[in-house]
Design goal:
single chain; alpha/beta; seven-stranded mixed sheet; 11 helices; 11 strands; elongated; binds S-adenosylmethionine; KsgA/Erm; rRNA_adenine_dimethylase; S-adenosyl-L-methionine
Amino acid sequence: MNKTHLGHTARKRFGQNFLNDEHVIGEIVAAIAPKEGENLVEIGPGLGALTEPVCEEVSALTVVELDRDLAKRLRHHPFHANKLNVVEQDALTLDFEALLSSLPEPSVPLRVFGNLPYNISTPLMFHLFDFANCIADMHFMLQKEVVNRLAAGPGSKSYGRLSVMAQYYCQVMPVLEVPPHAFVPPPKVDSAIVRLIPHRTPPISVNSVNILERICAQAFNQRRKTIRNSLKDSVTEEEILSLGLDPTARAETLSLADFGQLANFVYNKEM
Ligand code: SAM
């Protein structure tokens, strides 16, 4: 299989699968709809498949690239070098609030997008959720299965910790499915684009997001058990009943509001 594209040999450790289908690229850029004056940030620009058409629309774009060779290529881009603010760094450790403060219009929230390296996509989304208040929206290419998990509701097989936490922070909208042959080298799985819009006001009021995360993790780590069992280190059966919830229910049937209620109860009990 050919792993060299535009003179660059794809590095597996950096999750490099480069987009190589003009039609798909056009659809992704149309979904992002970049506009002049926005604080656009691309994560993992690679060889510029999305970077270049976005630069056709706007005069400034920040790109965050970990691969030193690719960052260098972008700094020396023949047409767009003067539009690009190249941040050569691991996006997982980037302070997006500080990045926004360093831009000419720091009051305009970030629009983040990228064809993400699949090996870091979930931790990267959790990292970005910490900066939700300085982000207007995000468009990401992910494994289709991850997009299904992000968007899933109670009762679905895909529903889990990622669904609850993503939906606490963001409105989740699947946008487009992308087959493996749109990439070089092709990944082994189907991909999809998702749009995430951080809520200005969270859909539920939670005293401690850490406790919400902990309760979700406990409940879904043993998703086949009843919550009476999986949550026994945090709440008793009587306490679950007092919240109007069924102790014999399983995690996959609880809504975001139910998890919020459990988390707030545990917060009041422990704090
Ligand atoms: N945007 C390009 C495209 O669509 O063809 C490349 C996408 S490729 C799936 C992922 C890109 O993310 C690569 O360029 C890779 O070097 C970069 N990358 C991998 N890990 C990264 C990290 N931790 N922080 C920033 N960029 C990273």
